[in-house]
Amino acid sequence: MIQPKQTLRWKFAQTSMRFTASALLAGALLCSSPAFAVSKDMVQLQTQIQQLQDAVARLQQSNDERMGVMKDLIQQSADSVNKMAISVESLQKQMQTQHEAQSTKSDQVSGQIQSLNDSIDEIKARLATLQKLMQDVQGQQQSMSANMQNVPASGGSPSPAFATPPADSPTTTPAPVVRKGKPSANVPLAAEPASPAVPPADDLYKTALGDYMAAKYALAASEFSDVVKNYPDNPLSGNSFYYQAEIDYRDGRYPSAIKSYDSVLQQYPDSNKVPVSHLHKGMALIALKQTDAGVKEFRTLIQRFPNSPEAMQARSKLSGMSIPVTPKH
Fold first, then answer.
1. Residue 119 has pLDDT above 80, yes or no
2. Beta carbons within 10 angstroms of residue 250's beta carbon
C-alpha cells in the first residue's frame, strides 16, 4: 500500500513543477513587458493556476487521509485473521487431544472386555471340569450301591463283603468285575490294551488357557493346537484358533495370525471371538501395509456388529486414519 502512495505524490510533484514553470514563464513575460501591458487574460490564468494548485493540495490531503484509514482497516483485519488462526489452531489441538484420549479409552475398554471374555472362558472350563468330577463321583456312588446290593446277606450275620478274614487264613483277591461305564472306587477294571488317552476338550482347553494367561505362549500354542486337532467340531476349537492368532500377532507373525483369524471367521461363525477376530485381522493387515484390506475388514466389523465395543474401536481407528466409515460412491 505504500508504493502507490509514493507514485501519487511523485505525479503531484511533477504537476506542481509544471504549474510553477508556467507561473515563472508568465512572470517573465510580465516583467519583460510594460506594467500597463498586463492583460486581463494573464491575471485569470494565474488565478486558475493557483486554484488548480489548491485543488491538487486538497486532493493529496484527502488521499493521505483515506490511505491512513485504509491502513488502519488492513491492520485490524490482519489482527483479526491472526486471532482467528490462533483460535483454530487451539481448537485443532483440543480436538486432537480429545481424539487421542477417546482412542486410548476405546483401547482400554476393548482390552478389559477381552480380558473379561478370557476370564469367562476360563471359568466355563473350570465349571465343565467340576461338572465332570461330580458326574464321576455320582457314577462311583451308583457303582458302590449296586455292588452292595449284589452281595448276599445272611440273617443276623455280618455281610461277607465286610467280614474280617481269620488271621491264619490266606487272603484271597476277588476276581475283577468287568463293568461297562465309569469305574467303581473299589472294583478294579479288567486289563485293557494300552492306548494313548486324549484328555477331554474342556481339560485341554483349560490347560492351554491357563498357560496363555501365564504368558507361556509357546506351550499354550501347542496345547491350543491339540484342542483343534482332536476336537475340530467343538466350539472351544474356535477359541483355540483365536488365541493361536493372538500369539502369532504378538510375535509379529501377521500372515500366520491372519490365517488363524480367518479360521475363526469361516469355520466358527457363531463364536464370541468373531468381532475381535475382525478387528485384529484388520490391524494385522494394516501392519502388513495392506491398508485397503484392513479398512475393508473394519467396515465389515462395523456393519455386522455395529453396537459392539470392537466396532467402536474400529470407528476410532478409521477416524485416526482420516478415512470415512462408509465408502464413498
1. no
2. 11
